[in-house]
């Protein structure tokens, strides 16, 4: 599939317009791309939060069942505790601590890549050497093991862009090549950031 930015350039080359109009069209396209990216992230977060909310509702119902019919449901999970005076007293909030989606970590590696208009393979190569996976404000490991699963917060988009711009020279060769590809791709279009 052709890259959107390559299509923008090739489509504009065929138009007999002044450089000022060409620049204005490129700016409009960049704004539309940034708007699409923000809408994509918002939609992805909404879907993930809805799934998380349904899971918390299920947990709440399970807890109600345990209190109404303890012989049927067994014991309460270990994550339950008495809420402090300044905490939310929602019964399901006891599991929010271990709910990365409810905390805003709603983007998979693929969604993160799509939001930035980059290749998932390039982003996948770079998230570890750039330290994005270990940045607790941007990423959380939701499943450990041979196939570790990481969810990203939307703020990871801006952080990734900054990390790529200032990537150290001593990175492994495949990561260095990925940085070069990402920088070239980012140079073709203005990528907005999300909140």
Structural account:
It is a single chain. The two termini are 29 Å apart. The protein has helices at 4-13, 19-68, 70-73, 109-116, 120-126, 155-165, 173-188, and strands at residues 139-143, 149-152. The chain has seven helices and two strands, in the order αααααββαα. The chain has a domain at 13-54 and 99-188. The chain is flat, with a radius of gyration of 22 Å. The chain has a two-stranded antiparallel ribbon. The longest helix is centred in the N-terminal third of the chain and has 50 residues, at 19-68. With 195 residues, it is mostly helical.
Number of strand segments: 2
Given as residue ranges, the uncertain stretches (5+ residues, pLDDT < 50) are 73-84, 91-97
Question: What is the helical fraction, as a range of percent?
Answer: 40-55%
Order of helices and strands: HHHHHEEHH
How much of the sequence is in beta strands? under 5%
Q: Rg, please?
A: 22 Å
Average pLDDT figure:
77
Q: Treating each run of at least 4 consecutive H or I residues as one helix, how many helices?
A: 7
Large-scale geometry: flat
Essential attributes:
54% helix; 7 helices; flat; two-stranded antiparallel sheet; 195 residues; mainly alpha; single chain
């Amino acid at each position: 599939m052709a890259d959107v930015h390559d299509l923008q350039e090739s489509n504009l080359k065929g138009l007999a317009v002044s450089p000022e109009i060409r620049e204005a069209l490129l700016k409009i396209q960049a704004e539309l791309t940034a708007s699409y990216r923000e809408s994509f992230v918002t939609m992805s977060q909404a879907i993930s939060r809805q799934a998380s909310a349904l899971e918390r509702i299920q947990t709440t119902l399970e807890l109600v069942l345990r209190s109404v019919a303890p012989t049927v449901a067994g014991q309460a999970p270990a994550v339950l505790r008495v809420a402090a005076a300044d905490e939310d007293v929602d019964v399901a909030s006891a599991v929010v601590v271990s709910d990365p989606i409810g905390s805003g970590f709603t983007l998979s590696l693929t969604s993160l890549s799509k939001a930035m208009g980059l290749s998932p393979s390039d982003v996948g190569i770079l998230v570890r050497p750039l330290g994005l996976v270990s940045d607790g404000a941007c990423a959380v490991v939701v499943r450990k093991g041979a196939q570790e699963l990481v969810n990203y917060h939307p703020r990871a988009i801006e952080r990734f862009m900054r990390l790529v711009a200032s990537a150290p020279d001593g990175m492994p060769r495949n990561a260095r090549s990925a940085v070069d590809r990402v920088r070239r791709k980012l140079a073709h279009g203005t990528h907005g950031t999300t909140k």
